[in-house]
Design goal:
By secondary structure, this protein is α+β, with helices and mostly antiparallel strands. It has helices at about 10-20, 35-45, 65-75, 85-115, 120, 135-150, 155-180, 190-200, 205-210, 215-220, and strands at about 1-5, 25-30, 55, 60. The radius of gyration is 17 Å and the shape is globular.
């Protein structure tokens, strides 16, 4: 049984979860509190302070890219990385999603959590912390100030990331048009990209415009269930042309 560790709302953790389901590998997911996971992961023996991490047949593996490679070794079919000429293009798209796209949506999400007091509770559906969601929601008045401090993002960074995210959606649409992602058999880049776009769809300020794009339909198809909602809290000047 594979043990996957994430945090509520984590798009790369959801990407790994979709990979495990795609390969029909048995797993259990456990979520740590947002922000506090950076201190807890080293105590659990992982050499990383970010999620996802996984314990796969006794081996600790950190990061969605490394986990994808490990899963392909463990169960080669269906492959997350195709053979032949397409592999290089998929790997480039995967690396871009891991290094750029994920952070371009993560920073505005962290900013929004701090500025929308109701948002945090909406990401608790389906979490695996060993406590019922109702109990977790009841603890939010105590946890919210601590988690908020760990997730605070400067206004300038959040605004810059939103500007980059507008260009990112153009790149997702291009990858779909070129057939790098969006095929009948999803690959590692599909899962990395779809879950990041899916997090963007949690924003009331962005949802309509992203849904109007091929990227939005692709994300909903590959990742139909993604809990969480950010109300319209982004300043209008930041989202004048988000997509």
């Amino acid at each position: 049984m594979i043990r996957l560790i994430g945090v509520p709302g984590s798009h790369p953790a959801r990407a790994v979860e979709l990979m495990l389901r795609h390969k029909t590998l048995p797993y259990r997911r456990f979520d740590l509190p947002n922000g506090l996971h950076r201190a807890l992961l080293p105590l659990l023996g992982y050499g990383s302070r970010t999620v996802p991490v996984a314990r796969i047949h006794g081996r600790r593996v950190a990061g969605s890219v490394s986990i994808a490679r490990t899963l392909d070794v463990l169960r080669p079919s269906p492959p997350l990385l195709p053979d032949g000429d397409r592999r290089a293009a998929v790997e480039r798209a995967e690396a871009w999603a891991d290094l750029a796209l994920q952070e371009d949506v993560r920073a505005p999400a962290r900013w929004a959590v701090v500025h929308d007091p109701d948002a945090m509770a909406t990401f608790l559906d389906g979490v695996h912390m060993g406590l019922p969601p109702a109990v977790l929601r009841g603890s939010l008045p105590l946890l919210r100030p601590v988690v908020g401090l760990t997730m605070r993002v400067p206004d300038a960074e959040a605004r810059a990331r939103l500007g980059a995210l507008a260009r990112d959606f153009d790149e997702v649409d291009r990858l779909l048009a070129d057939g790098v992602i969006g095929g009948l058999e999803p690959n590692a880049a599909d899962f990395q990209i779809a879950t990041s776009v899916r997090l963007a769809l949690c924003f009331d300020d962005l949802r309509e415009r992203v849904d109007a794009r091929p990227a939005g339909a692709f994300a909903r198809r590959l990742c139909p269930d993604y809990p969480g909602r950010f109300r319209a809290v982004l300043p209008p000047a930041w989202v004048g042309a988000p997509a």
